[in-house]
Amino acid sequence: MRPPLITFEGIDGSGKTTQMGRLSERLKALGRPFMTTREPGATDIGRQIRQILLDPKNRAMRPDVELLLYMADRIQHLEEQIRPALEKGQLVLCDRYHDATLAYQGGGRGLDLGWLKPLEAKLVKPLRTYFIRIDPEESRSRLDRRNRDQGMDNCRLEEEDLAFFRAVDRGYQQLALAEPKRFCIIDGLGELEAIECLIWNDLEPRLEAL
């Protein structure tokens, strides 16, 4: 059986990137072949798309154009990196994947995504998705603190208001409720070590069963 795709989802500041890094260290210690990646921006083309998507100067971008750019990044990423890694026997850990589009562009922007079905049929489906959930208010607090500490400005999406992120959060929750066998919902306010152990205890037996 081919190794699986494992994805990490959540609104900005949830800690998903940190937890993916911690899982990577565990897999490295075990000598298990794996690859870490992210969306958007994992490929050369994707990095150019990411710059367009996140640039605050592009506030006039239409929601449907935003959606198409994310899908373009995903298809390039899938064919250039994810599929080849899986075919070589590598487990793939991805920081955001298609659920992010469903939550952000479907939930946050309120777009009808029904026309994406033919494209979705071509995607690799994750074995497990770790949805690290925090309240939008906590997300804003964490982003403001991070940007202040690192001397960074908000990117285009980070400039959205709380209503947008509340809609994204609802979108993620609806996705998780619709696929409880794939999603693992985690309280992002927990201790980092506790969250790390929870993810590992959930994932390890699944990997052993492959």
From TrEMBL:
Annotated Pfam families: Thymidylate_kin (PF02223)
Biological process per Gene Ontology, one example term: dTDP biosynthetic process
Keywords for the protein's UniProt record, in alphabetical order: ATP-binding, Kinase, Nucleotide biosynthesis, Nucleotide-binding, Transferase
E.C. code: 2.7.4.9
Chain positions recorded as ATP binding sites: G10, I11, D12, G13, S14, G15, K16, T17
Gene3D superfamilies: P-loop containing nucleotide triphosphate hydrolases
GO MF annotation terms: ATP binding; dTMP kinase activity
Domain of life: Bacteria
Thymidylate kinase-like domain span: 8-196
Gene Ontology CC entries for this record: cytosol
SUPFAM superfamilies assigned to the protein according to its UniProt record, in alphabetical order: P-loop containing nucleoside triphosphate hydrolases (SSF52540)
Enzyme class: transferase
Catalytic activity: dTMP + ATP = dTDP + ADP
Family: Belongs to the thymidylate kinase family.
The protein's role, per its UniProt record: Phosphorylation of dTMP to form dTDP in both de novo and salvage pathways of dTTP synthesis.
PANTHER family xref list: THYMIDYLATE KINASE (PTHR10344), UMP-CMP KINASE 2, MITOCHONDRIAL (PTHR10344:SF4)
Protein name: Thymidylate kinase
Gene (UniProt): tmk
